[in-house]
Amino acid sequence: MYFLQLSCLPFGAALVTAAALTSLPATSLSCQTQSQPNPIAAEYPTLTTGTINGTVAVLPIEYTLARSIIPSQYRILNGYKQLLPGFPADKYPVIIESVLDHGIQSNSTAIPDFSRVVLTFPFVDILGDGFSNFRYGKYVLVTDNPIAIAGTAAYGEIPITSTFEPPCDGYTFLPGSNKNIALNAYQGVDQALGRPPAVAIEFTPAGRAGPYPLSFYKNVTNQPSTNTGIVCDNFITLYNSSVTKGQYAPVVVVGNISIAAPYLPTAMAFKGVYGLKVDRAFIENNYLPCGSLKGYTQTGSGD
After folding, report:
1. pTM (2 decimals)?
2. Which of 150, 151, 263, 266 is least surrounded, with the fewest CB atoms within 10 Å of its CB?
3. Which residues is 297 bridged to in the sheet?
């Protein structure tokens, strides 16, 4: 979702970005991951592809709070009420994704892995047509990876250089635990200074079906995203590739999440949050005019 396709950049910027590949922090170059290889790299050699391995969860917040965060010129559409008929009428579903972007290639150029945590606000009427659903986003906590940072900023979102614990496998079950998953995201140098994380996530397998069907996750994670309403990221996540099947099938999880300001206007803690532990292949179409995605509904095919 947040990296530059080198072929789309002006010549000078492409040189800077290419040079950045050789000057990435040691953590992003040496971090060892258990994620599976990109299963669609050979199928789409000229596109930006990869996998995102981690958790995606729903944070039910007050509708009035969502309305205060999403710019007033954009309406909130009712699509989530149709997909989730039992969802509380006074709530709105914020989506939080905590993932490792892995096996990334852009126009056959490899990009080092990076971690990120992002909150997005789906079902936003960016085009004002009353039916095209988009995700609005403002901040992204992301590894100190120049490619990812520049890609985030290109959509008008604010990249927050962050460290993560664990640094690149926050999707794995903790050793010796009862299948617990935990991830802390620290902004800037907060981790080195012993300060609390900006985002803390704890999950365990729910052992039962959650309140949100897979169709809902497919919908919200495939809505085009933007901050400016002008340039959009068409980030297609696949739920039917080899990394999301069989032993890698999505696992329903439940747990607790705490988020500091300014990622929400005030610090908030959520308990009993449901989500998925899931690895997904993706195809990214960068820097599209948002108007070109009018009525867009697609998740793409698998490998």
Report:
1. 0.90
2. 266
3. none
